[in-house]
Amino acid sequence: MVTLYNRIAGQSVERLAALSDGIFSVGMTLLVLDLHTPIREAIHSEHDLCRALTALAPKLLMYMMSFLTLGIFWVGQQTQLNHLERSERSLTWIHLAFLFAVTLTPFSTMLLAEFIEYRLALVIYWLNILLLGSMLYLTWVCAEQLGVVKSDIQADVARAIKRRIVVAQALYAFGALLCVFSPYWSIAFIVLVQLNYAIAPRLPRSSHKAA
User: Fold this and answer.
1) Which stretches does DSSP call E strand in the chain?
2) Measured CA distances, 49 to 53, 61, 152, 153 (Å)
3) How far apart are CA 137 and CA 151, in angstroms?
4) What b/e string do you get for 83-93 counting C-beta neighbours within 10 Å, with b at 16 or more?
5) Is 208 left (phi over 0), alpha (psi -120 to 50) or beta?
6) What average pLDDT is seen over the chain?
7) How many CB atoms lie within 10 A of CB 145?
8) pLDDT at 97
9) Which comes out higher in pLDDT, residue 42 or 106?
10) What 3-state DSSP class applies to 84?
11) Quick one: what percent of the chain has pLDDT higher than 90?
12) Is residue 149 classed as helix, strand or coil in its secondary structure?
């Protein structure tokens, strides 16, 4: 019996996770390359240094925001991979498309940092986030359809994975819409969304008494 190559290709979850870790680490490192110390010859006083550091504030903010972005999506992808028994060729390629969106993040970050007052730069940054979220959602849907999800996973866990992505993308979209008023409003809202997902505050649950 002839074995088709496509049936045996791309089945290692461990290798996929290793590649993802490498790309995320490089992407997160590239983010900081847009930060440069003030030119020594231009600094002649404390005031000059303070002014130069203040000018770096937008780039520093973009660096922190995108570091959070990649951190959140790394956790999301690792959560999915931890619940897979194996991978498949088609699923692996969708994950590679997700990683492609990861590699675009340093560019969209630098673009927004350089043109922070322009709506187009903010929209391009949001489209990068949208591509990340869409690919991450598609990877889980594909994994379910291919039957490579671990059999002991609970139904509410699978729903929570998809719900988290959908809700986050809806919030990011709302944040992007705020650029109609000001790109700064969009950035502030996106940062708040990211802090919420990064910190994951536990809200007290209201107790319900049985009737």
Assistant:
1) none
2) 6, 18, 58, 55
3) 20
4) bbeebbeebbe
5) beta
6) 85
7) 12
8) 94
9) 106
10) strand
11) 48
12) strand
Cβ–Cβ under 8 Å, residues 80 and 136: yes
**Alpha-carbon distance values, 203 to 14, 157, 166, 200 (Å):** 35, 19, 20, 9
Of 38, 73, 69, give the one whose Cα is nearest residue 52.
Answer: 38
Distance in angstroms (rounded) separating the CA atoms of residues 34 and 106: 9
- Entry field: residues in the chain: 211
176 vs 183: CA distance, rounded Å: 8
Amino acid at 74: W
- Show the tokens assigned to 156: 């509410």
Q: Which of 183, 53, 56, 178 is nearest to 112 (CA)?
A: 183
Q: Which amino acid is at 173?
A: A
Q: Which residues contact 149 (CB under 8 A, 6 or more apart)?
A: 83, 84, 85, 143, 158
In this prediction the pTM is: 0.84
Tokens of 58: 């937008």
Which two tokens mark 160?
A: 């929570």
Nearest to 49 by CA among 57, 36, 39, 61: 39
136-179 per-position pLDDT tens digit: 999 999 998 888 888 888 888 888 889 999 999 999 999 999 99
